[in-house]
Structure formats: C-alpha cells, structure tokens
From TrEMBL:
One of its GO terms (molecular function) is structural molecule activity. One of its GO terms (biological process) is archaeal or bacterial-type flagellum-dependent cell motility. InterPro entries: Flagellin_arc-type. Keywords: Cell projection, Cilium, Flagellum, Membrane, Transmembrane, Transmembrane helix. The chain crosses the membrane at residues 6-27. It comes from Methanocaldococcus infernus (strain DSM 11812 / JCM 15783 / ME). This is Flagellin.
Length: 151
C-alpha cells in the first residue's frame, strides 16, 4: 500500500509540474500576442492621424522651364507632424516616377518637419507642359493625386 501511495504522489507532482509548464507557455504566448497587438495599434493610429493634400491650383501648376523644375505644394491636414525630406515622398507624373530636386517647409524654411497646417514645397525635375496626372506618395503609403495643367 505504501508503494501505491508513493506512486500516486509522484504522478500527482508530475501532473502539477506539467500543468505549471503549460500555464507558463500560455501566459508567455498571450503576453507576446498582446504586445504585438499594441504595436500594430500604435502604427495604425499614426497612419490614420497622418493626412495631407496637394494644394496647387490645378489650372496653373508652377514650372520653371529654364531649370526644368515643376513645383508642388502639399499641406499637412492631419493631426501629427509629417517629415518633409526628399526620401519621405515619391512623386509620380503620368505613371512615371520623377526625381525630387529639393523640398522645403513654406511656413518654416529649413525645417524638415511639416506641423499640422504647414505647407511644404516639393520641386521635381519635370519640364513637360500640358495636362498631367500627378500623384504624391508619403513613405507610409498615404497618397494624394491631382490632375492639373502645367504651363
């Protein structure tokens, strides 16, 4: 009888150890999942609070034909600041990616950040006149487009 009680105690302790191990694994997995959900929520919240508009006059988008530069103006209409650097934006005109010559903050020249309400200047190397479809894409994937006339 003593050996039977001893084997039952050993089995009981083994079951408790296995249950504690499984509970630890489940707890760790749940914690990692909740951290991942929190990080994704922060990224999504940032993307949703970012917004901008192209504020050029569609009937007269400025172009310097001597330098071959077309100027685009974007306004930060979101709730968070946006970067205004050459690497932060991609400009596509009529389906072709065009090189960005320089960028600047119209409201705070020299600043590399557009605060809500600020207007940014994007100068691109494009020297064709006529009606064009212009798309500006932010590094986060947010994009805006305009169909306008470049004289």
């Amino acid at each position: 009888m003593a050996s039977s009680a001893l084997s039952e105690i050993i089995l009981f302790v083994t079951v408790l150890i296995i249950a504690a191990f499984v509970a630890g694994v489940l707890l760790t997995s749940s914690y990692k999942i909740s951290i991942g959900i929190g990080e994704k929520t922060d990224v999504l919240s940032e993307k949703l609070s970012q917004d901008f508009e192209i504020v050029n006059d569609p009937s007269n988008i400025p172009r310097d034909s001597n330098l071959g530069i077309t100027t685009l103006y974007i306004k930060n209409t979101g709730n968070t600041q946006l970067p205004i650097t050459k690497n932060s934006y991609t400009v596509i005109i009529d389906g072709l990616v065009v090189p960005i010559e320089n960028v600047d903050n119209y409201n705070n020249p020299g600043s590399n950040v557009l605060y809500p309400g600020d207007v940014g200047i994007i100068n691109v190397s494009y020297n064709n006149s006529g009606y064009h479809k212009i798309k500006v894409v932010l590094y986060s994937g947010l994009s805006r487009e305009i169909i306008g006339y470049i004289p």
